[in-house]
Amino acid sequence: MKAAIIMTTGKPDIIHWNDVANPIAGSGQVLVRTEAVAVNPIDTYIRAGIVKAVLPNPYIIGGDIAGVVESVGPHTQYLKPGDRVWGSNQGLAGRQGTFAELCAIDEQWLYPIPGGVSSESAAAGALVGITAHLGLFLHGGLQAGETVFVNGGTGGVGSAVLQLARAAGATVITTAGSAEKVAACQRLGAAHVIAYRTEDIDRRFAEITATTGPIQLWFETLRTPSLDRCFSLMAPRGRVIFMAGRDARPEFPVGPFYVKDLRAIGFAMFNASSVEQRVAAMALNPMLADGRYKPLIGARLPLSDAAKAHQLQEDKALNSAGTLMGKIVLKP
Ligand SMILES: NC(=O)c1ccc[n+]([C@@H]2O[C@H](COP(=O)([O-])OP(=O)(O)OC[C@H]3O[C@@H](n4cnc5c(N)ncnc54)[C@H](OP(=O)(O)O)[C@@H]3O)[C@@H](O)[C@H]2O)c1
């Protein structure tokens, strides 16, 4: 089969679309014929060697997948050939990634694709949807009626947080980098959108929170958070979620934090157990089916263009190029 592989870590051009041996479904695994995959920032950190990982050699890149079960290995419990499945959390902890025509994946990381949902949509919504769900509900304890802020309402994580929080009955405030993205956030259900490149952010926050009240849950997707601004806008006992910026060392305004009884919560989705991730995935499925969760797709490429996809993702997440709205999806 063909796969997007690396032999060493480095820049996007070390990714090659090569022939490799077909994987074999081991105990508890199924063989999935890939229909769509999506790129996440973590894929680029692993490829670049920024996130240190012991990688198989060659290493197949990628974590998200949607496809069809081709065959099942021994000791599998619930999947059968022909089932449509989506999953995430591959390419980690010694596991091969998903940017290949066939993937052998532990059943525990796969979920059914609801009828009527495309493979592209299921792949695009995978890691970011599970991340948003874990952050909002497992870690953040979101309640209906609360006010949520998330940066980047058309980003991968941001657009999922926006839609899931909205569906849970929260009022959502978000940011976007262009008029087109502001309009997209409004279509996704944001109550208030700050055009962060052109508007006075502090003035807009003041206007908005004068109507919504202070923020109960702040979901920080930026690697460079402004904690003075954040803490000043929070309600007493509000929760601030940190989930980006491994190297970030911002100043922490202790006084404004403790006098409001604020809580700081950090999490990484891949620390969640397969059971916790399945709970999130199975909660996303009905929302994918009825359109409450519509993963945004900004670019579609052939899987053979994985190197180009990594460059696009890096420009977007690390260099804030603002060139894309939503996920990059690739198909074999
Ligand atoms: N902890 C975890 O489990 C976990 C899971 C997934 C992702 N992450 C991390 O979360 C971060 C976001 O991931 P992603 O997949 O959502 O990335 P993404 O799809 O590339 O989105 C990045 C977003 O950031 C916005 N943005 C950039 N600069 C901004 C600024 N100055 N002010 C406001 N918004 C700004 C962009 O908005 P515009 O496009 O409108 O400019 C875009 O919406 C990454 O650092 C990633 O590594 C962590």
Offer a concise description of the structure:
With 332 residues, this protein is an alpha/beta fold. The chain is built from 10 helices and 16 strands.
- CATH H-level name of the largest domain... which superfamily? Medium-chain alcohol dehydrogenases, catalytic domain
- Protein structure class: alpha/beta
Molecules bound to protein:
NADP nicotinamide-adenine-dinucleotide phosphate
CATH topology of the largest domain, what is it called? Answer: Quinone Oxidoreductase, Chain A, domain 1
Shape: globular
Instruction: Detail the poorly predicted runs.
Output: none
Tell me the series of helices and strands, N- to C-terminal: EEEHEEEEEHHEHEHEHEHEHEHEHE
CATH top level label of the largest domain:
Alpha Beta
What's the overall average pLDDT, rounded? 96
- Radius of gyration over C-alpha positions, nearest whole angstrom: 20 Å
Largest sheet: 7 strands, mixed
Number of helices: 10
N→C terminal distance: 11 Å
DSSP strand content: 25-35%
CATH architecture of the largest domain: Alpha-Beta Complex
E-strand count = 16
Helix content: 25-40%
> What's the number of domains?
2
